[in-house]
Each structure stands twice: as C-alpha cells, then as structure tokens.
Structure prediction request, 248 residues.
Amino acid sequence: MRKKIIAGNWKMNYSVNRAEDFVNDIKDRINTDEVEVVLCPNFVSLERVSDLIEDTNIKLGAQNVYFEDKGAYTGETSVDMLAAVNVKYCIVGHSERRMYFNETDEIVNKKVLKLLQKDISPIICVGETLEQRDSSKHFDVVENQVKNALKDVDSIFLKNKIVIAYEPIWAIGTGVTATDEQANEMCKFIREVVSKLYTKNVADMVTILYGGSVKPSNAKSILEQSDIDGALVGGASLTNDFVAIVNY
Ligand code: 13P
Prediction:
C-alpha cells in the first residue's frame, strides 16, 4: 500500500517571520502519521521551518536545487546545503521553473540524480499545457518528461524515493481542477510508462501525486482515485485550507 503524500508548495510567498507564524498556527493540526505531510517553503525560511517541525512527523521540502556540488554558481543552492537543514524532499521541474527559468528535461534529470545521491526525494513535476491537451499531445508530452527525468535512475529509487507529480499547467493557479477522471487517467498512464521503463512491480510502488487547484472541496475525491497517491498543493497550502486537505 502506497502511503499518501500531501505536499504544500508555498512558491515565492511568506518571509521567514510569516512562515514561522503560519507553521506555529497549523503544525499541530497537520501533524499526523496517516499521510506524509511535506512543507516546501522558500529557501530563506527552510532552516526556521526545519527547527519548528523538528519534533513532528512533518517533513521539509525545498522548491529547487542546483546539480553541482559547490563552486562559482551565484544564486544557486546545493543538495548538501539542503541536507544540512534536514530537507527530505525537493521539487524539480515545476512548470513555473520550466517556463520562466528554462529548466529543461536534461537539467531536471541532473537534479534528480544529484538529489538521489544525497538521499533526498525528488518530486518530479510533469504536465501539459492546454494547447497540448487540446491537440491530443498530452500523453506524449508527459511520457517524454517522465522518461527524460528518469534517465539513468536505478529502479530501487523508484520504489522508495522518487515522487512524480502530475500537474497539468492549465490547472495550476487557475481554480480549474482536472476532473477526477482526467487526473487519474494521466497518473495511471504515468504508472504504465514507469512499468515499461522498469517493471510492473516497480510501477506499483512509485508514488504519483496530482497538483493543480487542489482545495478542500475536491481533495477527497482526487485522493481516493486508484492511481493518485497524494497532492501537491499550491495556493491552498498557504492558508487553513491546507489543514482541511491534510485531514481529508
Ligand atoms: P495551485 O494549487 O495554486 O493550483 O498550484 C499547484 C502547484 O503548482 C503546486 O506545485
């Protein structure tokens, strides 16, 4: 049985003091072992949030990382730096990073491999634009993103470390959620892609999330779908709505 993951991607919101207040406000109500709860604050708040959740089951996630170990890469953050503040998950290939910061499949793959070396779980984001869906290219687009992100990744990591998040771009921040059927159909398809790349046994164990306008009113039905193992929540992770989603 795959354990559900509910991750909050705060994106570029909340400075450190606000982050502290928010975590103090919600942490007792999201401290559960029934689902794996992950908070992904901005880099400057990671350490503070890490301290605040130290005695809870809540896990810390980062929103990005660089694939080199150290050196002259102004503005970048290494996996060791993340590991030092107890980061356990890291989002890679979010559509906003692909769109605004030219993050390619090749870069995503390098980040995935580097994170795995340091025992941090990559949350690999994939998903199509509305135009791609309307022209029936969505399965091809997502298949390519998954294949490229997983290049040279050993099967053992699929079973216990890799998380894939299907986030259709047209559903992110728009209030338009994919229907349960659309979301589950693609998550099932991703599992088939993993099955072809590895084995059915591996595919049965990989964790696949849905993200895109998840809110308290739709969380339960999304999370009950056969192939959806959790949610990557944006806007609703910044408010009390996150508590309701975790306790769906
Ligand atoms: P929203 O939940 O705001 O649509 O954002 C989803 C997302 O991008 C999570 O990574």
Q: What stands out?
A: The chain is about 45% helix and 15% strand. The two ends are 18 Å apart (CA to CA). The chain has one domain: 5-246. Residues 9, 94, 167, 172-173, 211-214, 232-236 surround 1,3-dihydroxyacetonephosphate (CB under 6 Å).
